[in-house]
Structures are given as structure tokens and as C-alpha cells.
Design goal:
The chain is α+β, with helices and mostly antiparallel strands and about 300 residues long. The protein has one domain: Beta-lactamase (3-Layer(aba) Sandwich), CATH 3.40.710.10. About 45% of the residues lie in helices and about 10% in strands. The chain has 13 helices and ten strands. The strands form three sheets. The chain has a five-stranded antiparallel beta sheet. A three-stranded antiparallel beta sheet has the order 3-5-4. Strands 6-7 form a two-stranded antiparallel sheet. Strand 8 and strand 9 form a beta hairpin. Helix 4 crosses helix 7, helix 5 packs across helix 9 and helix 6 packs across helix 8. It is globular and about 55 Å long. The protein binds glutamine (GLN). Glutamine binds next to loops. The site of glutamine has 11 residues, from loops.
């Protein structure tokens, strides 16, 4: 199917939309990005790509990286991972602390910050050089030669990460953290500060649309069963306390990041990345959600 025309149609309709929303200024370096940037790239199951706007503009992937760390951890550890992190929607903001306390240090799911700290901790236990391993994994699944971290964004987040430090200490106090908090925060902020563009990002999620098969290396990253579970988690938990609304409006499995990116997959069909930095009140990229809602509505296809 030729997606180019419909992508351009939705893109141009949304270009008129006033730029509302707030940049992720709790990470100071992200407060200075141009809020008008807007890009899209859809890659179909065979790897054919359809792009529009600022699709080659690199941006901070932030929480989208949590999917990659989850897959790395889950593919090695298997079901034992679920002893340390749950698979339920949280109904709370991504950086919530209270729920972790009253649920005895077991994060609700791997996509809120506490859950991603646990999967990052798991990856660190598996690999001596976890930072490189994560980048290597993303490079492998996306068919891209090198994956880069924006050191300014990383330093900027680390300097203002009191809440994530608090979450990590809480996990430690419940015995749900093997590494030291400082070492963990170093690796966590490193993968959040990875920069990619829409084209690279859409490619890096394509195996999740292809039942675990990576077309760039012709290898199976996850079997069909595990792929189903990752996609189910993206559908139910990928947008924090707005996951229900994303399923309701868009109907794809996806993941957002406070850097302005959203990636979504329709298994058996395509992977798509949309970039627009201003965030709504739930911390999800506002215009990117509209884009995906309009796209699935016009196409008449979704998970449902
Ligand atoms: N690095 C960010 C944080 O920990 C990621 C949050 C996000 O993208 N939702 O706050």
C-alpha cells in the first residue's frame, strides 16, 4: 500500500494547528528545542518507508528507550522478570512515587520510570557494559550503523533528577535493585538521552510489527509469543495515565517520550514514528497523538 499521500494529507492538516502544549522543561536542555518541529516516518512491513516534514531531525528518544531495555532484559531473563515488575497500567504519571511505596517496591509496569529502572538494573546485571549493549541492540534492530547519546541532555537530566533518584532509592529499600543507585542512574539517563530521528525510530520498532522478525538482519529478535506481550504492554501502559485514551483514539500499540517522539506499531502492517515536541498535561506529545488518531481514522485500520 502507498501510504505517502495519506501521511502528507494528515501532516498538512495538522500543520495549521496552533502550537499548544509545553516542552519538557524539567530537563532544562529539552526546553530549548524548536517547538515547531514536526516530522513523520512510516515503515511498512517490507521496509518501504514514507516520510514527511522533519522526519530526519534527530531528537531525544527519552522513554521510548524503555521498550528497548525491556526487550533486552525480557529476552534474556524471561518470566522471572515479572517477579520484579508488574504488567498492569498504572493510571498514574510516569514519575509517580506513592504507588511504588504502597505496592511494596514492585513497579506497576516496565514503562513508568520505576519499572524502567528495574529493567535497566536487569540489563546491567546481564551485561558488564550495559550502555554499549543497549546502543548495539538499537543499532541491530534498526539497521543503523551507530546510535548516539546527546551528552548535554544526559547531564542536564542527571542534574535535575531528584525524583528519579528518589524512585531508585525506594526500589533499593525494598530490595528490588541490584546495582548502586548512582550507577543505575548513569545508565538510565544515558539510554533516555539517545538521539534518533523518525526514520531510525520507525525502523527500530519494525520487528515488533513483524512478529519479532528483524528484516534488516534477517533474524528473530523475539518469538511471536514474547512479541505479543511487548505490544500488549505498549498498548496498555505505553502512555501512562493516558494509555486508555490512546487505545480509544488511535488503536495502535505505542510508546511516547518527553522528547516529543511517539512510536506505534500495527502488527502485520507497519511501524510509525511521529515527532512534535510540545507535550500535553499527561506528558505525551500532543500533535503526534492527533496525527496518529487522524491517520488510523482515515485509513480505517487499527488493532481493533
Ligand atoms: N528520562 C525521562 C524521565 O525519567 C523520561 C520520561 C519520559 O519520557 N516520559 O523523566
Amino acid at each position: 500500500m502507498d501510504y505517502q499521500e495519506i501521511i502528507e494529507e494528515v501532516y498538512h492538516e495538522l500543520l495549521q494547528m496552533p502550537v499548544k502544549g509545553k516542552l519538557a522543561d524539567y530537563i532544562p536542555e529539552l526546553a530549548s528545542v524548536d517547538p515547531n518541529q514536526f516530522g513523520v516516518c512510516l515503515v511498512d512491513k517490507n521496509g518501504e518507508e514514507f516520510q514527511c516534514g522533519d522526519s530526519l531531525q534527530p531528537f531525544s528518544i527519552q522513554s521510548i528507550s524503555k521498550v528497548h531495555t525491556l526487550v533486552l532484559a525480557y529476552s534474556q531473563v524471561g518470566v522471572d522478570l515479572w517477579k520484579r515488575v508488574n504488567v498492569e497500567p498504572s493510571g498514574n504519571p510516569f514519575n509517580n512515587l506513592a504507588q511504588l511505596e504502597y505496592e511494596n517496591g514492585i513497579p506497576r509496569n516496565p514503562f513508568i520510570n520505576s519499572g524502567a529502572l528495574v529493567t535497566t538494573d536487569t540489563v546491567m546485571s546481564l551485561y558488564p557494559n550495559a550502555k554499549e549493549e543497549i546502543k548495539q541492540f538499537i543499532s541491530n534492530v534498526s539497521g543503523e550503523e551507530s546510535i548516539v547519546v546527546n551528552e548535554n541532555v544526559k547531564r542536564s537530566e542527571l542534574a535535575c533528577a531528584s525524583r528519579n533518584y528518589a524512585v531508585a532509592h525506594m526500589l533499593k529499600s525494598y530490595g528490588n535493585l541490584q546495582r548502586e543507585v548512582d550507577d543505575l542512574m548513569e545508565v538510565y539517563t544515558d539510554h533516555c538521552a539517545i538521539e534518533m530521528n523518525c526514520y531510525q525510530l520507525a525502523k527500530s520498532f519494525l520487528y515488533l510489527a513483524n512478529h519479532g522478525h528483524n528484516i534488516y538482519t534477517d533474524t528473530q529478535i523475539l518469538d511471536r509469543g514474547l512479541t505479543k506481550r511487548i505490544n500488549a504492554l505498549m498498548l496498555t501502559c505505553g502512555f501512562y495515565d493516558e494509555a486508555g485514551e490512546f487505545a480509544f483514539r488511535v488503536g495502535l500499540a505505542g510508546k511516547s517520550g518527553v522528547g516529543g517522539g511517539v512510536v506505534a506499531v500495527l502488527p502485520g502492517e507497519f511501524s510509525i514514528a511521529v515527532y512534535s515536541p510540545p507535550l500535553n498535561r499527561k506528558g505525551n506529545p500532543r500533535k503526534a497523538l492527533y496525527f496518529l488518531e487522524m491517520l488510523t481514522t482515515k485509513l480505517g485500520i487499527s488493532l481493533f
